[in-house]
Amino acid sequence: MSLAAKRSWRSSACPAGSRSEARSSRCSSYWISCLRLVQLTRAYRRSAIFESALIFGVIGFNCADQFDWRLSLGEGWLLAPAVFQGIFVGMLAAALTEVLNVIPIVAKRLKLGPYLFALLIAMVLGKVAGSLADWLLFQPMHE
Amino acid sequence: MACCFFFGSGMAIMNFHADVDMPVVQRRIIELLTGRPDRHAWLFEIPYSIGVGLGMLIFFNRVFRKRLNDEPNPLEVEMFMYQENVNHYVITEEYAKAREREAGPDA
User: Fold this and answer.
1) A126–B contact, CB cutoff 8 A
2) Count of structural domains, chain A
3) Relative to the CA of A55, which of A76, A84, B89, B105 has its CA 20 to 30 Å away?
4) CA dihedral sign, ordered A140, A123, A25, B50
5) Which of B5, B40, B71, B86 is the best residue to mutate to test the A interface, defined by the most A CB atoms within 10 Å of its own CB?
């Protein structure tokens, strides 16, 4: 990425410096994961689309639930909502401020800075493994 | 430490599922989409689990050693903020001590 593009990112992403970012990470993980998605896709101008998507998602699923709007789609259609819901929950879990607050301290105290990526991957794999174990092992056990 | 994070985050996601009663919600979604209640929709559960991992990777701006772009990820920002706060604390503390030393002989 060129320097000019970098500078334009700096000025557009956090105009008040990184402190505003840290403060926003304290509010709610829902919000930060939405902000993060907008930031990552460089869609500040088009963030209205994200807002509309959230609103329509809430209204649509609420109506479907309350009014019992049933679709009779094939099994294969389950793949798409499953993946997107997974990504949403994953971003939500990653945005939990506990995670973001603990890791810097752990990395500093135990001098694990160089292995940060490995820790991150361990966490991601743990999430996937935990989720799979939950759905495929423990949920069938309860029934 | 990696094991700690692995098992800890696995437990955390299971806690989350139990907390929000995910199995019930998932059965409801499957019922609404396919029109019939299905107790074990592997087609839903496995992509969901993979999506969780994918979502975390997207959040941290990494896809296996490769950065998607060169913005700092939230973790780096958080580590920077932690260091900044520690520095700020130390400096403030030192100033307070110096002021005490200055005021010490008079008092």
Assistant:
1) yes
2) 1
3) A76
4) negative
5) B5
